[in-house]
Amino acid sequence: EVQLVESGGTLVQPGGSLRLSCVASGFTFSDYDMHWVRQAPGKGLEWVSTIGTAGDTYYPGSVKGRFSISRENAKNSLYLQMHSLRAGDTAVYYCVRANFDIRGYIFYFDFWGQGTLVTVSS
Amino acid sequence: DIQMTQSPSSLSASVGDRVTITCRSSQTIRNYLNWYQQKPGKAPKLLIYAASSLQSGVPSRFSGSGSGTDFTLTISSLQPEDFATYYCQQSYSTPPVTFGGGTKVEI
User: Fold this and answer.
1) What is the pLDDT of residues B33-44, one digit of tens each?
2) Chain A residues with CB inside 8 Å of B25's CB?
3) From chain B, which residues contact A within 8 Å (Cβ)?
4) Which residues lie closer than 8 Å to A14 by C-beta, 6 or more apart?
């Protein structure tokens, strides 16, 4: 059974830093691209970062330069290091596995963790 | 960036109703479109990928259609457990991955 378990979310002051972790099980972690997706309270879904199987990383403009995604395949773990946190970063952060259709072109998010809440407030 | 627009943002329906949710992209995304269901306090769940492929374990009352810029998620006969928020997501031109704003299906 595929499982993704996030941790590390907490209350942090504006300007602070935080590292989120996600431990994966039930699949060969190193074979999959992994993502972080967040959801602010009462709002929609927002993609936050991607790390490919080769370690390539991608970010939207809203977090680029402040957030850093990484992975440790030997520990089946995904991380999100967040700096210079703002009130607008308050959200539930989901660790997400990406899979591809049979042709290998279209990716989709087939497994999600339960989420970890990050609250940025003084 | 490709913008995804869902309509309506919310709808009221009854058990047994046929429900249709629309998602439109700001430029063509071929069939690189996925649908998710989210219930309150829970993580999203994949329903449909590649516009019309049903994810394993998802009931057949859910179906997806469309290509290019216009897509539809249909629930053929709404069940009590289907009251939730639904999101579309494009994976054609990334980064960034983009989601629609969501459609809340209420009683």
Assistant:
1) 999 999 999 999
2) none
3) 31-32, 34, 36, 43-46, 49-50, 53, 55, 87, 89, 91, 94-102
4) A85, A86, A87, A120, A121, A122
pLDDT of residue A105 exceeding 90, the answer is no
Helix (H) or strand (E) holding A20: strand A18-25
Chain A partners within 8 Å of B55 (Cβ): 110
Among all chains, which residue has been given the structure tokens 């290019």? B68
* Closest by CA position to A69, among listed A105, A33, A39: A33
A68-95 per-position pLDDT tens digit? 999 999 999 999 999 999 999 999 999 9
Nearest CB to A112 within list B43, B94, B98: B43
Nearest CA-CA partner of A15 in A93, A91, A87: A87
* CB spacing of A45 vs B87 below 8 angstroms: yes
B95–A58 C-beta distance less than 8 A: yes
Q: How many CA atoms lie within 13 A of A2 on its CB side?
A: 15
Q: Which two tokens stand for residue A108?
A: 């989709």
